[in-house]
Amino acid sequence: MQELNESQKNIIYSSIRDIPDFPKPGIIFKDITTLLNNKEAYGTLMSHLNERYKSYNLDYIAGIESRGFIFGSALAASLGLGFVPIRKPGKLPSTVVSEKYSLEYGVDEVQIHLDAFRGQDGARVLLVDDLIATGGTAVAAANLINKAGGHCVEACFVVELSFLPGRQKLESLTEVYSILTV
Ligand code: AMP
After folding, report:
1. At what angle do helices 67-79 and 39-53 cross, to 10 degrees?
2. Helix H segments across 2-135?
3. Closest CA to ligand 1's atom 11
4. pTM of model > 0.90
5. Cα of 21 from ligand 1 centre, angstroms
6. Does the Cβ of 129 fall within 6 Å of ligand 1?
7. CATH 3.40.50.2020 is right for the domain spanning 56-181
8. Which tens digits make up the pLDDT trace of 14-50?
9. How far is the CA of 158 from the centre of ligand 1 (A)?
10. Does 87 sit in the ligand 1 pocket, CB within 6 Å?
11. Spatial separation of the C-alpha atoms in residues 103 and 14, rounded to whole Å
């Protein structure tokens, strides 16, 4: 399966800014706004994702609020697929299914619309987010995709924090692909 070479990875890696002690002391926040406003880095990332996933025979891209919406919806449009938002509680207006999870910095919950995959049982879904840390958010999101009748084919992240066990947790549910491992 297609992966980036070292110089392409470096273009993306060097565009991401580290913000120490955000949103609380001890967290080094990976700020992807400096990737998004860098056309070379954003272009390298999105054309790689397009190349990698065009042969996956996907039906939907599901993105996790909120940074997963940016990459996920851009990829869905370029692949000609539908996009499904996985959101924080109280944001989705129709009937939802929910999952609770622990975050690197707190406890939260995610929701998906019950009819997100338009009744297509076994719809092939790619899950997208900017970063995997403890894996709590992504595990909850992959469970939601399954509860809504989809099949989570792979979970894709721009950054994986490899000193945390996110990948190991998620691998029991789906394939995991990270563009950068730090
Ligand atoms: P986790 O559930 O611990 O894997 O956390 C992943 C979610 O929290 C993703 O939606 C990330 O956007 C966000 N997140 C967690 N840690 C960081 C970090 N160090 N920098 C940026 N985002 C983070």
Report:
1. 60
2. 6-13, 33-36, 39-53, 67-79
3. 131
4. yes
5. 13
6. yes
7. yes
8. 999 999 999 989 999 999 999 999 999 999 999 999 9
9. 11
10. no
11. 25
Residue position matching structure tokens 């950068």: 180
DSSP string over 150-170: EEEEEEEEEEE-TTSSHHHHH
**Domain layout of the chain by residue ranges:** 56-181
Read out DSSP for 119-135? T-TTEEEEEEEEEESSS
DSSP state of 87: B
104 CA distance to ligand 1 middle (Å): 6
Question: Could you read off the pLDDT of 128-142 as tens digits, one per residue?
Answer: 999 999 999 999 999
134: left (phi over 0), alpha (psi -120 to 50) or beta: alpha
